[in-house]
Specification:
alpha+beta, seven-stranded antiparallel sheet, four-stranded mixed sheet, 15 strands, about 30% strand, globular
């Protein structure tokens, strides 16, 4: 994996993940797009369907091994969140779920009304991809990938030759039996290393196989 591609990611539509518990719902982490969200989003766009098929049991190590790239975490230039947005989950009319499930509809993430906080459009994130260069492979200047709950967020990826340092996800490294020092523990699947030069990051992810 000798190719290093600096990336600029710009949100085109809002997106959220169930990252943080807040009163009445959940909020996403506004400061990053995870390495795995990027990798799986690219796999979908570039036709690597075997790498993210819904048919096999979830296995991140297996799926990442099927992809010809690894990535850093994409860090936000200016982390921002939109105001809380109310959502409704209509289990009776839309879900078609049995009564025993409807009876717990007011508990946890199954309650009918809850809120999320989303990352707004025009938010910029930066990081790097290691492996094949998708821009050179396809001749395209940009890609649009989907991220977030139900893949409802759209993110434009462009080359950024100004990237000099990146952060890796130590949790992803652990999948490949690599132990990295963690500077910031956000949630279990997102454990950020300190910033490191691109060459050093490329040498590390080359061992994630």
């Amino acid at each position: 994996m000798s190719t290093i591609v600096g990336l600029r990611a710009t949100t085109l539509t809002p997106f959220a993940y169930h990252s943080l518990a807040v009163k009445g719902g959940t909020a996403t982490l506004p400061e990053l797009i995870s390495d795995n969200a990027l990798c799986f989003g690219l796999a979908a766009v570039l036709g690597h369907v075997r790498a993210w098929s819904a048919l096999p049991a979830k296995d991140y190590q297996r799926d990442l091994r099927a992809m010809p790239w690894r990535s850093s975490v994409l860090m936000a230039d200016e982390p921002r969140l939109l105001p809380p947005l109310a959502r409704r989950l209509n289990l009776e009319e839309e879900g078609g779920f049995p009564k025993k499930l409807r009876d717990v509809a007011n508990k946890g993430n199954l309650k009918q009304f809850w809120t999320t906080q989303e990352v707004p459009p025009a938010s910029v994130f930066r990081g790097a991809l290691f492996g094949i260069d998708p821009f050179a492979e396809t001749g395209l200047d940009a890609f649009v990938i989907r991220v977030g709950l139900h893949r409802n967020g759209m993110v434009k990826l462009e080359r950024d030759d100004q990237i000099r340092t990146v952060r890796l996800n130590a949790w992803t490294a652990m999948l490949f039996e690599r132990t990295l020092s963690v500077q910031r523990f956000l949630i279990y699947p997102l454990q950020l290393t300190a910033s490191m030069p691109l060459d050093e990051a490329a040498q590390e992810v080359a061992q994630w196989n």
